[in-house]
Amino acid sequence: MPVRRPRPGPRRSGVRTDGGGAGPGLRRLSDYAWRLLVVGVVAYLVLTVLGQFHLITLAAFLALVITSVVRPVVDLAARAVPRPLAVLIGLALALLLPAGLLALIGENVADDVSRLAREFQGGLDRLEKLLEGAPFHLEPTTFADLEHKISDFAAEHRSTLISTAVNGAHRAVELATGAALALFMSVFFLHSGERMWQWTATQLPPAAADHLDRGGRAAWRTFAGYTRGIFIVAASNAIMVGIALFLLDVPLALPLTVLEFLASFVPLVGSPIAMLVASFVALAARGPVTAIVVLLLIVVIGQIEGHLLHPLVMSRAVSLHPVVVAISVLAGSIAAGVIGAVVAVPAVSVAWSVYAELRRPGGRAGARTGTG
Questions:
Q1: pTM score, two decimals?
Q2: Where are the alpha helices (DSSP H) in 78-157?
Q3: What's the maximum distance between 2 C-alpha atoms anywhere in the chain?
Q4: Is omega for the bond preceding 135 within 30 degrees of 0, making it cis?
Q5: How far apart (Å, rounded) are the C-alpha atoms in residues 71 and 76?
Q6: Closest C-alpha to 70, from 258, 228, 263
Q7: What does the angle CA 29 – CA 34 – CA 39 come to, to the nearest 5 degrees?
Q8: In the chain, what are the domain boundaries?
Q9: Cβ neighbours, 10 Å, residue 152
Q10: 263: which of 79, 88, 269, 305 is 20 to 30 A away, CA to CA?
Q11: CA torsion angle for 294, 299, 300, 304 (degrees, to 10)?
Q12: Which three-class secondary structure state does DSSP give residue 131?
């Protein structure tokens, strides 16, 4: 009896049918996908918790900023005096310098308030005549109608404005409370932060403690370097702007210089916005020529900051692409307004430095943290 041979089945392709997936590429992609999903969920939960305790979070962030800026002064003073006295000296300088600057600004504005009012009124009159001429040809009643609309709006929404003012006072109390808490925390960070960090690391198993120690030290190096660097960049921008505004005889030069210093803490967009404010002041008080010169300062300062200050001061602490910086600032501003825009870049820089450090097989032995 002849033996029947089985018919050959269809040829199988390279796709596995044993439940192992569609190949190593897809399996690797799925592995990364679920890991990224877990990281995203954890990050969302952490941000949610921090948002619920935003006052404590901001106080801790401010305390770390104070510590990173004041610590070199404290370390220098500690060579000659005991550490507690060195901490007191450093914090006293950190408090007295801004307080003295604010007092100087208040005195400067109070002395020139009447002259400034006359200059601004004259500048507005010149601006009105300029807009009524070619090529704008605005109606003479446009500014009067605008003033009436503003007055009517203020009268109709008086209760809302009062409520906003009350909320602003409440926010001011919160800020004062947070500042006091930050100052309290910075005292301990400056005095015994190293011991606090070592105690925290020893509470974990050795392997986890090693990773925590390496990641924490890398995070502090990046954060301290960024904070000190951004202070240097902001001070340099403010000095250049202040000199230019004084030479151009723009009113409120000192307050506008301080505004430029504070705005420089928001990368990419802060300094141009402050300069736009200065240009409006120059336009109202000194005319369009001075305002154009102030606008040109935006380009000049941007070039100096981008091609000289950042490469020299920030490159060792922050190695982020400008696109990443821009996206971080935008995402931070969407999530938490101005505070988010300020915090976004150092947070991304710290996260990237920790990731890069933990990927390395070893760490920098003997590196000190910056909190003690």
A1: 0.72
A2: 83-111, 113-132, 142-156
A3: 122
A4: yes
A5: 8
A6: 228
A7: 125
A8: 50-150+163-203, 206-363
A9: 10
A10: 88
A11: 140
A12: helix
